[in-house]
C-alpha cells in the first residue's frame, strides 16, 4: 500500500518587522505561526537561538511573539540590538524561519 501524504498547512500568520526602540523601553517582536498540530516557536538573534528559559528580560508570549523588557543599550553593551528571526517547528513536518527583523536602539 502506498502512503498518502496530505498537505498540512504550516505557515506564518505574522512575521517580525524592523523595530526602532529607545533604551529602557519594552519591545515586542511579533510572530505567529499556524499549523493544525502543535508547534514550537523559538527565536534567533544574529543567527543564534535565544535561551529564553534563563532570560529574565526576554520572554516568549503565548502567540509566539518575543517580548523584550527594558531594552539595554550602552556604549559597550548592546545585547538587544541586532537581527531577529522567528523559528517555528512542527515535529513531523519541519521548520520554517521568518524574515529577519532588525532591532535598532536609538541614541539620546
UniProtKB/TrEMBL annotation:
Lineage here is:
Eukaryota, Metazoa, Chordata, Craniata, Vertebrata
Domain Ig-like residues, every copy: 9-104
Please state what the protein is called.
Answer: NEO1 protein
Q: What PROSITE patterns does this protein's entry cite?
A: IG_LIKE
Family label: Belongs to the immunoglobulin superfamily. DCC family.
Q: Tell me the GO BP annotations in alphabetical order.
A: cell-cell adhesion
Q: Which domain of life is it from?
A: Eukaryota
Report the InterPro entries cross-referenced here: Ig-like_dom, Ig-like_dom_sf, Ig-like_fold, Ig_sub
Alphabetically list the UniProt keywords. Disulfide bond, Immunoglobulin domain, Repeat
User: What is the species listed in this Swiss-Prot or TrEMBL entry?
Assistant: Bucorvus abyssinicus
A Pfam family recorded for this sequence = Ig_2
Amino acid at each position: 500500500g502506498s502512503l498518502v501524504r496530505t498537505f498540512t498547512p504550516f505557515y506564518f500568520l505574522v512575521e517580525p518587522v524592523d523595530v526602532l526602540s529607545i533604551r529602557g523601553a519594552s519591545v515586542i517582536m511579533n510572530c505567529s505561526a499556524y499549523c493544525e498540530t502543535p508547534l514550537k516557536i523559538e527565536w534567533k538573534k544574529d543567527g543564534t537561538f535565544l535561551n529564553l528559559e534563563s532570560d529574565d528580560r526576554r520572554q516568549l508570549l503565548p502567540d509566539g511573539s518575543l517580548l523584550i523588557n527594558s531594552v539595554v543599550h550602552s556604549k559597550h553593551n548592546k545585547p538587544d540590538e541586532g537581527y531577529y528571526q522567528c523559528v517555528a517547528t512542527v515535529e513531523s513536518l519541519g521548520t520554517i524561519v521568518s524574515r529577519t527583523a532588525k532591532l535598532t536602539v536609538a541614541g539620546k
